[in-house]
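Your task:
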Amino acid sequence: MNAHLPLIADITDPQLTQALQHKLDHKTKPLGSLGRLEQLALRLGQIQGTASPRLEQPQMVVFAGDHGLAARGVSAYPSDVTWQMVENFLAGGAAVSVLARQHGLALTVVDCGVARDIAPREAAPGQPSLLLRKVAPGTNDASQGPAMSVGQCAQALTNGMELVRALPGNALLLGEMGIANTSVASLLLARLCGLSLAECTGAGTGLDAAGIERKRAVLQQALDVNAAATAPLDALAALGGYEVATMVGAVLQAAAERRVILVDGFITSAAVLVASRLQPHVLQRCVFAHRSGERGHQLMLAQMQAEPLLDLGLRLGEGSGAALAWPLLPSACAILREMASFEAAGVSGQTAAA
């Protein structure tokens, strides 16, 4: 594969970790009383390499693409919904558009491989922007052969790396759109983790029981016809989507730059799974926003030893869960930077007898 992937260094720093924990333990509160927020603060300090982390110019990027598998009835919605939702994102009417606007997140939508051409446009200040990085108008049907060629996969990876290099800020929030992309996530989970499709496959956009069985049968065909594609990049090319491959490149680049990566749900986690199989230290830079209602997501999180911030039964995608979890991150940073210690505030600490 021609894409030159960055090397992701180990950022483990025991001395910094000890300093961060000491700082948290001596804030004006009972030990550990801020719960998971303290763990989050510790992770953000480790990613940024400082005891006073700051998040600047956060970027929500929604990667969009279509899938040949959609023609096999693996989704409750037609593939036209992909381009229609892209237009909805740009018009400001989608859930992620609303949440990005609420929380001051710059929103960029990337056409990685939508089947219909999206008209280029100039974004007004503060409005969602569109990047055209289309490799092809949708992937091939993975149940009949590879979804994309090795060269197409490499181009998508390169596109993802280049677009992150051009983005400001130090935090990347992942979102996606693509009818049938829960099928892609299920396939990648099954192939890379050696799990059965029965464990990995759920309702996606809302299939009934018969629809889920039909979906599993189609996905089994995809695994069988691409049986030789077992290495991470081979599996990505054979089973993946252009939006997922572009996201893998984006994750690798963001990790190389030590940006905080806020991961949304099942599909974005699949991109991180692939990236982590290429470069394991990617996971040191990731914060997982939520545990989705999609069947395979819990298994995927377990494979990456990830503990998400929220569990709200979400399964919309788009980056909506990442946007909802986002306010916890600047809050954790602010606690580290601004909350007083017992000594500084003149507050008595815990007594030895307690």
Remarks:
- The chain has two domains: 14-54+334-345, 59-325.
- Residues 14-54+334-345 form a domain with the 5,6-Dimethylbenzimidazole Phosphoribosyltransferase; Chain: A; domain 1 fold (CATH 1.10.1610.10).
- The first strand starts at residue 59 and ends at 65.
- The mean pLDDT is 94.
